[in-house]
Amino acid sequence: MEILDFLAHGFAVALQPEHLLLALIGCTIGTLIGALPGLGPVNGVALLIPLAFNFGLAPTAALILLVSVYYGCMYGGRISSIVLNIPGDEPAMMTTLDGYPMARAGRGGEALGLSAVASFVGATVATIGLTLFAPLLVQVAIRFGPAEYFALFVLAFATIGGVTSGSFTKSFIAACLGLLLGTVGIDPVSSVARYTFGWYELYDGIDYIVALVGLFAVSECLLFLERDRDKATASLRIGSAIPGMRRSLACASTIGRGSVIGFISGVLPGAGASLGSFLSYVLEKRWWGAKGKFGEGDPRGVAAPEAGNNAAAGGALIPMLSLGIPGSGTTAILLALLLSMNITPGPLLFEQQPDMVWGLVAALFIGNVMLLVLNIPLVGLFAKVLQAPSWFLMPVVTLVAFVGIYSLNNSPFDLYMMLAFGVLGYVLRKLDIPTVPVVLGLLLGGQMEFNLRRAMSISSGDWSILWSSGISIGIYLFAVTLLIAGLVYALLISKRLK
Amino acid sequence: MSAEALSDHAALGDRIAGAVLAALALGAWWHAGSFVTGFMQPVGPGVFPRLVSVPLGLLALYLIVRPGLNHRWPGAAALCRQLGVLLLLGAYAAFLEPWGFVPSTLVATVVLMRLFGARWRQALPYGVLLGLSLYVLFEFALGIPLPDMPGLSV
Q1: Which residue of A has its CA nearest to B130?
Q2: What Pfam families does this protein's entry cite (chain A) (predicted)?
């Protein structure tokens, strides 16, 4: 029962008043950002990272704040799906299918209440899973050498197609582009300047935070400018969330199944929350068959994807914390935060900074409860925020991004860089090339190269060290299996769309 | 992203992107040759960029041959607004330090709100309100130092 000791210790960390307050702030801000149409969790966390730096928070505190924002955004994302039929991000898409019909039938409050409970259960199941399984993974990962780590990075990139559910070619192109961008700057091993072309601002490399705020938040603003302007959104009666909470008892089995499916897809590298919500919805629909009214406002069609979505979000933290390999776009951003604080996630993190890891896990449990409680009285307020005009909301988002990035280094160069990445992100999204792999490449490239070089200097230049151990061969085989599974999955989806 | 948001005749965008990326991969490969490998380094600074530029180049060529779907490109009006926002933000970045935070931010918020579709009588009061409240929030509540107005530094 070592884990329970660790967890008790974690609760002691997370229950410090300062950390509790930060969790509360994070949950509230996160729900608000998640609720804004079009601004999903990825943008929310990306926007707040530069700010968290400037608070001068200790790493544990900053992490608690941002993880609360992360969970809050996952909660908030469903509000715009249900009320406006606009999913905040890709995983929330399945919730619109039955959530919006419910809202139109005047059962919006019920749908929101039900989805709050489903999200809570999903996230709690995932957090329990995280507590149980992350240490097991750490036991394995502690034996990894540089060659095994290199294999692990190959695995992360081989399965990247699943993160984004777009075209495989384009996902890999995006990953390669990110890896290449990651080599810009002074090479840490040989001190050679790479691709800097004499710009001394580039010697430190491309700052991930500048790049990701540009790629996500700025490109979002540019995309927003071309949508139809201020179509008056019909204000729907939301009603109370209480009947939805009661309804969730009737959907208990649905929520349970959704949570487990979501958790498993969250843990798989590269699969992530989109797959979690998609699979739980589709399986639930098949489970009930003709008895369900899926697509016309069946409450189970709200409960299943929400449980799956939130369980996957928690599950994705497992590979991120124990191996340093993110399983979703948002965990990639959390990884960016850790790396910029000079914290390298991985098995050593669990050994050297148990305070941080277990404090974080405890903060997740606490944040979950907070979110559920916040959601009962505040759901109406959150839904009101959606009706604020976009000409006010979007400038707020832009300026927060601007000030946050500027204050990182007090450098206008970072701002130009952010705008350049904004244009890049916009063009990529127009071309249907996913931006998450670019960020992953940028983030993981340095570590991947470092491990490759260490392995090669151990073997003094013999490439076969990369596939000489059982573990690394196993990882490559796993990568191939997931790659094939992903291709089959993509084929099935494209058939279904036709 | 739903399937109907994609227009099917826009393969041209993918072909152009493929050509640009292929050129980028080639350039990266070629430039990596100039990185000097140090003494006792089995893997020099040029190897990893080259390892990455090979799949990038091949995939980019594949994209030229078999382009996928693109989203619809914006019309002239939307494009003007986007360029306007980019120019405004670029100018904001340039004027932030010489003008100080408050004046440059006030101009930026008001114009930004106009570009996002507010009327003047909405943009002026709310822009000023937003600019000032951001200043109070960042400078005092969060304690982030922002550039002062010239001549007004405390």
Answers
A1: A396
A2: TctA
| DSSP H/E element including B66 | none
- pLDDT tens for residues A283-329? 888 887 777 778 788 888 888 888 888 888 888 888 888 888 776 77
Q: Where are the alpha helices (DSSP H) in chain B?
A: 11-32, 47-65, 76-99, 101-115, 120-135
For residue B77, the chain A residue with the least C-alpha distance is A226
- Is residue A62 within 8 A of residue A341, CB to CB? The reply is yes
B144 Cβ neighbours under 8 A, 6+ residues apart: A54, A403, A407, B138
Q: Where are the domains of chain B?
A: 3-71, 76-141
What's the pTM value of the predicted model, to 2 decimals? 0.82
Instruction: Summarize pLDDT for B2-54 with one digit per residue, the tens.
Output: 333 444 455 788 888 999 999 999 999 898 888 877 666 777 888 889 989 99
CA torsion angle A367 A310 A327 A285 (round to 10): 170
Q: Do the chains contact at A221 and B85, CB–CB below 8 Å?
A: yes
What are the φ/ψ torsions at residue B71 (nearest 5 degrees)? -80, 160
Considering Cα of A121, then A122, then A126, then A127, what sign does the dihedral take?
A: negative
Query: What secondary structure letter does DSSP report for A235?
Result: P
Four-CA torsion A279, A280, A281, A282, nearest 10 degrees: 50
